Structures are given as C-alpha cells and as structure tokens.
C-alpha cells in the first residue's frame, strides 16, 4: 500500500509515537490496579464522545485523518441534514438519464473533461468540511501571513476526537478484525476504503509498532483485493458501498 521509501521514512515516526504511548501507559499503571479496574467498567471513549456536537460525517473523518458500473438512482430525496450530501443528491435526482457511480465521482469532484457538466462539481469541499469541524469544536480558525497575502488556516484544537478516530480505524484492522467485510460495521468499512483512496490511511497507522503496522496494512490489502462485483452479490450487502469501492479501486 505504501512504497519502501514511505515505509522507511515512517519507521522513526511510528517508533516515536509508540514510545510515547508506552510511557503514557506506564504512567497510568503506576496509579494502582483498583483505579484501572474501575476504568474498565466505564463507557469507552467512543461512547463518551458520541454526542451530537462531536459526531462527524464520513467526509469530515477522512479530512480529519489527513490533517460492472451501476446507475445511481435516488431512493429517497428527503434532506439528510448534511449540506454537501444534500447538494450531491439534488444533482443525482435531477439528472436524466442516470449516471453511473464512476461518472458521478468524476462529475462531483470536477474530474471531467466535459465542459457542459462542470456545474456538477461540488465547490470548496475541503474548506466547507473544515468549517463544519470548526463549528463542532474540532478545529479552530486562524489567519496566517504569507509574504504579501493572508491565508485562513484551520489548526486542530480538539486532539481527543482525532485520537478516538485513529484508535477506531486501528482497532478495525487489529483487535476488532473479523476477517469478513460483511460482518464489519458498514460505516467503518467505508471509512477505511475512503481514507485509503484519499491517501490519509497511513496517518492512522503511523503510531503503530512495526508488527502491528505490517498486520494492519496486510489486512487493508485483503480488503482492497476483494472483488466488488462478487461482494455486492452476497446476502445482506450494501450495493452502493461496493459500487463506490469498485470506482475507487479499479
């Protein structure tokens, strides 16, 4: 999934992160066993942080980690509450004849050579996602001066949410690996695929020890090597998910 050069350059970072984690664990362990036992009975970090204020969309999570064709037909035109998703669904609903998943990915991202279809492109996606994360208290907004002009940046302000996200991705392919994509949480499965397609999955694996890193990347490769055409024919599957996977992995 990464080149040998990338693998070598990430080694120091992973070891540094692993050392910090080990030191933190040792510090916590010095507090006594009874306290640890009490913590085990408390709700997990994911449950504590799963409030409406900090619940992130898939696209926001992908952005945060970076700090046979089928026609797409809207089954429901009810608003989802997500501005970007509602904008995409509006385009899909109003377009006849229906486009394929592959075509919609190209149209919505602006990667089309047809000038008559450039209006389908979702504008300023990264900036709009960043502003959503600012509203949710995950990022903040700052102005930085670059020679002759000012640039708006969005530094991370709530690292706990990002660390929970990284932990969730790591556990999906390590401690909670089920060796069957159809038994995985569909949203988490989609996150792994989208993070890989966006080249930010490596950021979640950087803190891992070498053995964990190799195992995690091996299991991601297993997911990438699956045939979406075969998987979408299985019982209780999500055809749209596998159609998107096919568009990104072909």
In short:
56% of the residues lie in helices and 4% in strands. The protein is mainly alpha-helical. It has a two-stranded antiparallel sheet with strand order 1-2.
Walkthrough of the structure:
The radius of gyration is 20 Å and the shape is globular. The two termini are 15 Å apart. The longest helix has 26 residues, at 4-29. 56% of the residues lie in helices and 4% in strands. α4 (58-66) crosses α9 (186-197) and α9 runs parallel beside α13 (239-249). It has helices at 4-29, 33-40, 45-48, 58-66, 83-94, 101-109, 125-135, 159-173, 186-197, 201-205, 210-224, 228-231, 239-249, and strands spanning 142-146, 149-153. A two-stranded antiparallel sheet has the order 1-2. By secondary structure, it is mainly alpha-helical.
Topology:
Layout: H1 4-29, H2 33-40, H3 45-48, H4 58-66, H5 83-94, H6 101-109, H7 125-135, E1 142-146, E2 149-153, H8 159-173, H9 186-197, H10 201-205, H11 210-224, H12 228-231, H13 239-249
Antiparallel strand pairs: 1-2
Helix pairs in contact: 4-9, 9-13
